[in-house]
Structures are given as structure tokens and as C-alpha cells.
């Protein structure tokens, strides 16, 4: 059975930053299960249904930092801190702190397997939802389409 991450709302939600809007849209997407399966099919050594990698992936989702983590990577590889800071300028301060805390706590061996999975899953889902895998900070701050 597919897992459901993040909050579910019955009416439009106004958020403060484009990063928050993108994070909520990702977690409410009907395409998230397909994106996770497609990311796993890219040949990454990742067991979505168990193991330490799964625990770290779940934490990224529950901490609502998956999209921010995707922005911290290029083709699944973690960028230098200065580049991460520049890419996260459209995210809330809470999300930026949460990402840095996540990156400090995740063991490097696990990060090398989990970050590419998160990167590709977020990009695949975004491409299905919007037609482009690229993050668009011009996204409206009112997120609609949440189901009960």
C-alpha cells in the first residue's frame, strides 16, 4: 500500500514562500507513488520498503524538506554550502534550518544513497504535475487541490 506523507487540507492554503508551496504540492500529489517507483527504477541501490535508507527518506518527508533537499543537489550530488544557500533563498527559514540539520545528522554513507533517490523522486513528480522538472519560484503562494 502506498504511503501518504505530509498534511492534507480540504481548502486552499496560503503559504509564505514558494518553497513551502512546492513542498506541500509535492506531498499532496497524486503522482508521488509513481515518482517513487520511477526513481527506484533508475537503478539506485535503495530499498524503499525497509532499511535505514527508508527511515531517512521518511524523516525527510515528515520534516517537509524533500523539495529543499532536491534543491541542495545537482543530479543527486550534494552541492557546496554556498550554492545550497543560494538555491534555498525561496524557502522559509524553518525549512533552511531543517535541511541543514538533516544534512548534519544523516550518515555520509546513507546520504550517498538517499539524496539521489529524493532528488529524482521530487523531479519526476514535479515533471508529471507541472510539465517541467525545474523548480519555479514564481509559483503561486495559494496551494489548491488538496483532498480530505
Describe, in plain words, how this protein is organized in 3D.
It is a single chain. The chain has a two-stranded antiparallel sheet. A two-stranded antiparallel ribbon has the order 2-3. The model is unreliable at 1-13 (pLDDT under 50). The chain has 148 residues and is mainly alpha-helical. The radius of gyration is 14 Å and the shape is globular. Helix 3 (51-62) packs across helix 7 (108-130). A hairpin with a 2-residue loop joins strand 2 and strand 3 (77-78). The chain has one domain (14-129). The relative contact order is 0.25. Helix content is 55%, strand content 5%.
Please provide a brief summary of the model.
The protein contains seven helices and four strands, in the order βααααββαααβ. With 148 residues, it is mainly alpha-helical.
Name the features.
single chain, mainly alpha, two-stranded antiparallel ribbon, 7 helices, 4 strands, 55% helix, disordered N terminus
**Helix/strand order:** EHHHHEEHHHE
Mean pLDDT: 75
**Residue ranges: pLDDT <50 for 5 or more in a row?**
1-13
What structural class do helix, strand and pairing data support? mainly alpha
Approximately what portion of the residues adopt beta-strand conformation? 5-15%
Count of discrete alpha- or pi-helical segments spanning 4 or more residues: 7
Largest sheet report: 2 strands, antiparallel
Indicate the percent of residues in helices: 55-70%
CA distance, first residue to last residue: 18 Å
For the record, the count of structural domains works out to 1
Shape: globular
Strand order, biggest sheet?
1-4
From the alpha-carbon coordinates, what is the Rg to the nearest angstrom? 14 Å
Tally of DSSP β-strands: 4
Amino acid at each position: 500500500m502506498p504511503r501518504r506523507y505530509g498534511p492534507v487540507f480540504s481548502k486552499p492554503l496560503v503559504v509564505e514562500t514558494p518553497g513551502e508551496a512546492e513542498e506541500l504540492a509535492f506531498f499532496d500529489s497524486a503522482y508521488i507513488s509513481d515518482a517513487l517507483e520511477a526513481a527506484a527504477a533508475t537503478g539506485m541501490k535503495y530499498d524503499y520498503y525497509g532499511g535505514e535508507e527508508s527511515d531517512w527518506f521518511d524523516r525527510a518527508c515528515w520534516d517537509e524538506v524533500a523539495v529543499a533537499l532536491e534543491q541542495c543537489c545537482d543530479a543527486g550530488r550534494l552541492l557546496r554550502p554556498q550554492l545550497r544557500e543560494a538555491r534555498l533563498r525561496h524557502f522559509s527559514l524553518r525549512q533552511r534550518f531543517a535541511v541543514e540539520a538533516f544534512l548534519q545528522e544523516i550518515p555520509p554513507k546513507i546520504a550517498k544513497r538517499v539524496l539521489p533517490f529524493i532528488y529524482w523522486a521530487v523531479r519526476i513528480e514535479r515533471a508529471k504535475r507541472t510539465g517541467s522538472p525545474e523548480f519555479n519560484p514564481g509559483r503561486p503562494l495559494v496551494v489548491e487541490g488538496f483532498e480530505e
